């Protein structure tokens, strides 16, 4: 692990391999360990960088400075600090929101854009979004972070065969700082691209799980508004496709990268 100071914070990251750069952005309340099944696979042929976003893992946890736009600028400054001019940005869940925001604001840095079980408008998801914001906020305030970690982990990995994945993810979630998680979550739910989505001309892969929180139709709708996007659905997968179906996900991503 290495640390680098950017945008008034320190970001913790891992950097493996050589070649074209794949920069991987994890989900809310997690860390760069979301990508443990991808790093060894892709670092054989690419330079793979996985980073802890602000407020997460071993990166700085500010008191008040949170939100997708700040995370986007962190990533731009991070690439600049490493002297990286071009990268494929791969974002899972909250990391997908950061990747979307980055694609609008800094497209000149991108070779490709990869979005995994995410969306461009967390502030405009209808009833699903309202229920998520209200339900999770109330759960946090009344039952605490440890109980939420258990709930989220079970929902992501409910099968008997997934007990090890569930326990590992739960332990990761429990390590969160309460304030950092709360503010990361609430600012995420206030973020959205709106009409700016159609400005993204970068070649884009959207990966959806067939049993994600939001249906495949949700991803189909916003993919239809992207000028240069392809949607692939991974079967027998819930929200954490990069974790619960790593072989299928890795093959989908490798095919996309090889088709350039």
TrEMBL record:
<protein>
    <submittedName>
        <fullName>Alpha/beta hydrolase</fullName>
    </submittedName>
</protein>
<keyword id="KW-0378">Hydrolase</keyword>
<dbReference type="InterPro" id="IPR050266">
    <property type="entry name" value="AB_hydrolase_sf"/>
</dbReference>
<dbReference type="InterPro" id="IPR029058">
    <property type="entry name" value="AB_hydrolase_fold"/>
</dbReference>
<dbReference type="Pfam" id="PF00561">
    <property type="entry name" value="Abhydrolase_1"/>
</dbReference>
<dbReference type="InterPro" id="IPR000073">
    <property type="entry name" value="AB_hydrolase_1"/>
</dbReference>
<dbReference type="GO" id="GO:0016787">
    <property type="term" value="F:hydrolase activity"/>
</dbReference>
<feature type="domain" description="AB hydrolase-1">
    <location>
        <begin position="21"/>
        <end position="142"/>
    </location>
</feature>
